[in-house]
């Protein structure tokens, strides 16, 4: 199976850079910029400096034209840099959407009059299909829209959506009935009931999500924006207020000139939280994009954010914690039989068994005991597993080979006239079950030969993963249909925190509700129709792309790889987005201290020359000091774009440690960095001024 | 010298902490309604109880109650001439002054644009000042308790009237009685008499009348001890006398000074622990307490270091007198030559630091200590002249008012701290990769909005009016000092009004006096109105918005703390809150600090000329 995960797009990919550059100028339109109120005020500020620059040129403004001109240019650049970061993030999404859209070519559909094979159909365009239309899809046809298979079964190539080239079976009834528009039938024919109107299909939704067109701000993003707007407003008033204060001070000191409009505007832009406001949209869009790189589609940004908050992960045992199937690892004979006898009987009982467990018995018997049995004997009669007998096996040469759960096999041999059982059988069965494995009792006619130890194989590295989750305060709960004994043993081996044994779908729902009652946020994965209620209830619900339509409808995140372990990645990305926002906000606000130390002494120097002692950075001249602060404020945005797009590095550690780490890096660092940066810029600017 | 300087501040901080701890237990017990009252009191309490209230009903009751208080206060002051207990026949204050004073006392500010001993009768002192001091102190207290109940997830915020009753009857009345006796014992007057006419030791000191008789001195007395105890306990700060706690009747001895200072600290200290107790999160309240105590120690150490331990720069900064040219509109050419300092070169011993405006009966550091503490807890009483502090030392009381959360007034200081906590958590909480939570509840857009409104009203109400008055004659004509110090005077006045503090840089022309005053300060009316409005808005917005915020937050489901949640009871959290307060404070107030005290400190003209 070859997979093509969406190719990672380099941040500096020219195919994205160029349109982003153009877009960042288009976004200067106040009608669009208005959506980012902080940057909108910066644009107004830039416009004001353009006026003061014009006045400098005419001589109406006494400030040198090079100063007002450069301040104005850098303020405009601040806005453009902000637009650029957003455009860059959007551009990455658009590039992916474009590649998806290529798969959506014009398709004709065979609309059936009745949902039956052989019924008459008319050829219509896919765009004319409506909900509840029935269509026929035959070999080599492209499925024209999302729907449910109502009759037949077919092999479907879903690589257009999932990147998975191996075809999958889609059949009516059961959990594999959903088909997606844009995928292709490779073999057989199916009748599909359309479940989505054109423009509302999964592919359409995916494209618009990736493009960011339908991106809605998440609750936390809105709250952060409220704070940023409030800060901007306050700094606006603080700066405006400096004007009368400086007029008073000029009178009081009898010298100097009041702070000019250009300088006040420059101070305002430096103080306003422009860094985070500029990068905020990009952080959210890039987060979605990072998830998409992992082949996960979040149907809302809210879901990713919730993923960061999750306290409890419900994980299906099979496929997530253990490899899908159990494997035979050992033959334990009872009642004086040799293990070779047992192996032979087990081999016979499993020869025609196509289940993975059955095949693993054959493999073990061949590898360990060198037994040869490629084809079943001619007279072989296969006994298929049934819910009644709960046994499977083979009748050949007058012998009845059986294997099954202990109680059903025992009942079977007793029925054949077995008087008493081997005394060691119970101990062996018990030992195997207690260790979390499944004991499979093997019999030949009325005699029990021994027990096959079928073991769940825990995925490699999963323990470390759970360990990390635990250190992040996330509890893992394993969901399994196994009996409590088996479940406990696997839970212990995999090191999950808790387990739910003999779980029915309604138990899952109850468990989620209970946890939510206690204030926990719960994440789960599911694929079956009976998972849908639980998926709808969970805060973060990940549906496998192979899952049924109801499951996908109920979920808020779709995993295209249908790999349940993805849940862990989703949590990481959720946390990363929040961390990036928090870190950059802290950095942005901490920066202001240094900007004050650059601008305040500079702007008041003519009034109170003694304030030069506050010029701790020893900046060359007042004008170069102000200009350097403005330049720093602008260039920090593109410098931080890679961080905003990639997200701050994820570290699995307790909140306390993480907080100290980030406070030092972005808080303390945010205070120090601009002192260094502004000084460095001033050294350059000072050469020309 | 070291011990003399630091013993008093250290003893005060330690004693207040020790007293606060058991006191908080009592407060929580009372506010949780666990007590059994005497039948009479119980009957009163029951008849007040209008049932459980939600946040709208609670704040509604609070506002209606305060409106009634405003009308009552206005009537008492306006009718002063016809009311009893006014043997000296004190007249009516100018209406704008009454407006200002009524708001001032109703809002627990006690900014006084009048002098109590000159302008108020004993009737007004008792039924206006003392009554308001008890009541206004309780209002903030109730607001905090309502917030705690909301955070606790209680079904209602309690009942405003019952809360007021509990705070008044079971806390302030007994505490005020206790401290009242201490002040009487130390020598404060407690009488309904209004004044004594006495012959001074130097009979001619007061001059003689036209008939050649020796003028006698009028010594004003009154129910001083009663006012003094609640003035300090309720962090009100409005003195019986214009001299406030520097007056020998208000603060007769060193011991009374200790209790005076302690009295304003105990309730704000105890409330922090009460917060933790009522929420069942003592460790969280220890961290908040530690942050507040650190800031308080910082302001005290700063003011003592720059005042008690530094000479007066007006006397020493310039060993040789220099001539400065300062602007003066009246002088020819608009400039005037001033030789400063006039005392340069005099053999002055300044090893005791800046002694200007200090009451030396209490020791050298008592003034600087008191001045810092009084603004930290938004009391506003003074036992030394704030205006005379060394310029840099004056930053300390200003910082106390600007941050407004270093213990702060009863209830409201803690509420302000909670706003900083929530903003701090909101910013930093994301850094641990979760939606920020306080007390396990997610902080959403609505909570941020309300917290930010409540938090930013205060700085804006300081900065905007200061800007307005600096640019107009209202400010320019009112300041008694030109230059940076004059700016500090205006800045201080609005800081004090907005922080509901009440202390002042004296010398600002804000007093109109009686209606018939032939010679009022020309700028008194705008100052009365402006500071009145500032006090009004900066009082009620930062009470209502946080109660609403707490109600919204409390209604959310709390999620249990785990390894992944930001813990609010660790040293890291303390540093986070401290950092938030200092950075936000610095960003808002650095420009004005530079234009005022810092420019003044750096010279060249000491004290602005």
Helix content of chain B: 55-70%
Content-based structural category of chain B = mainly alpha
Catalogue the unreliable spans of chain B.
Answer: none
The biggest beta sheet of chain A is recorded as: 8 strands, antiparallel
Give me a quick take on this structure.
Chain A is of the alpha+beta class.
Write up this protein:
Helix content of chain A is 52%, strand content 17%. By secondary structure, chain A is α+β, with helices and mostly antiparallel strands. In chain A, the strands form three sheets. In chain A, strands 1, 2, 3, 4, 5, 6, 7 and 8 form an eight-stranded antiparallel beta sheet that branches. Chain A has a seven-stranded mixed beta sheet with strand order 9-21-20-19-10-17-18, sandwiched between helices. A six-stranded antiparallel beta sheet of chain A has the order 11-16-15-14-13-12, sandwiched between helices. In chain A, β15 and β16 (447-458) form a beta hairpin. The longest helix of chain A is centred in the C-terminal third of the chain and has 39 residues, at 566-604. The radius of gyration of chain A is 34 Å and the shape is elongated. The model of chain A is unreliable at 1-5 (pLDDT under 50). Chain B has one domain (2-193, 217-314, 351-602). Chain B contains 19 helices and six strands. The model of chain B has no long low-confidence stretch (mean pLDDT 90). Chains A and B meet through α7, α10, α21 and α23 of A and β3, α14, α15, α17 and α19 of B.
